[in-house]
Amino acid sequence: MLAFIQVLTSGIAIGCVYGLVALSFVLIYKAAETVSFMQGDLLMLGAFAALGLHLAAGWPLLAAAVAAVLAVALLGAALERVVLRRALGQPHLVAVLLTFGLGMMMRGSVASVPAAAQEIHRLPFAADTFAIGPLVLAASHVWVVLATVLLAAALAAFFRFTRAGLALRACSEDARIAALMGVPVARMHVLAWALGAGLAACAGLLLAPITFVHLNMGFIALKAFPAAVLGGLTSLPGALLAGIFLGVVEAVAGLMLPEGVKDVVPYVLLMLALLLFPSGLGVGLGAALRRRGGGQ
To answer: Rounded distance, CA 31 to CA 13, Å?
Structure first.
């Protein structure tokens, strides 16, 4: 039972990272109606930026982490203004290929640094364990869960209580009507890409104590994308919950099934969800419950 609880905690922690990356996918999709395939590379870039500021520049770890998130968010905004805005009005494949190419450029830039390409690093925080009776938990797992709760609460407050958050919600619902109401749609697109990039960088910082900092850590976005699809690609709470769900299922599958099966689980669930609930698992289940309630 203790082993199962430890595995469950690990699954929740990695699921929180999946959920944050899925949130970044959904934020950008709702605002720009395109899928950004550079989120994993932004995640990796944020972790390496914090590592470089801490180890090379000698910044305190917290200051380096905050500066790295802000820098990656500014990079996301700049890429929208300089490159991605040109894809507006073009076929969706144009923006997808642009984000894929930009991600490859980021990855190549980091790989050009020998220490980054050849070594595995670790950000020195939350490296201890603590015990609750006979149960021993990794501090990094608890830290990831708590940080995710705080980030989700801050994001919810931003969208509910700030003018920029309300404007971004209006823009994501209907950009034309929002523009007629005076919402600066172009600025909201910049904000959405900046928030998406910043969330990816936060996910990279939270992932760093668990999997270390290395060039391939951004591949976790390939598992976070199914979470975004399971949530419906339009639901921020759905993306976060789907990410946690995938993390838990993957961890339990790794405990009970043969090695390697857990890496297939997210995609099997994605295929089932697309077949059963094409509009997204959260939307589909909600509609099914409403129909059942109406029938009764």
So the answer is: 28
Spatial CB neighbours of 148, under 8 Å, sequence gap ≥ 6: 16, 17, 19, 20, 206, 240
Listed as ranges, residues in the chain with pLDDT below 50 are 285, 288-289, 295-296
Can you tell me which residue has the tokens 């950004």? 36
One-letter amino acid identity for 213?
Answer: V
pLDDT of amino acid 291: 57
Helix ranges, the chain (H): 2-32, 39-51, 61-82, 92-111, 114-118, 139-161, 163-173, 175-180, 185-211, 221-230, 236-256, 265-276, 281-295
- AA identity, residue 1: M
At residue 85, what is the residue type? Answer: R
DSSP, res 138: E
What are 131's two structure tokens? 């015990």
Q: What's the pLDDT score for residue 19?
A: 92
User: Do the strands 129-132 and 135-138 form a parallel or antiparallel pair, or are they unpaired?
Assistant: antiparallel
For the chain, the first-to-last Cα distance in angstroms comes to 40
Q: Which residues, at least 6 apart from 16, have a Cβ–Cβ distance to it below 8 Å? A: 144, 145, 147, 148, 206, 240, 243, 244, 247
3-state secondary structure 227-291: HHHHCCCCCHHHHHHHHHHHHHHHHHHHHHCCCCHHHCHHHHHHHHHHHHCCCCHHHHHHHHHHH
Q: How many CB atoms lie within 10 A of CB 149?
A: 12
- What domains appear along the chain, each with residue ranges and CATH number? 2-295 (1.10.3470)
> CA torsion, points 14, 18, 21, 22, in degrees to nearest 10?
-160
Q: What is the DSSP letter of 127?
A: -
Claim: this prediction has a pTM higher than 0.90: no
The alpha carbon of residue 255 and the mean position of all alpha carbons in its chain are separated, in whole angstroms, by 25
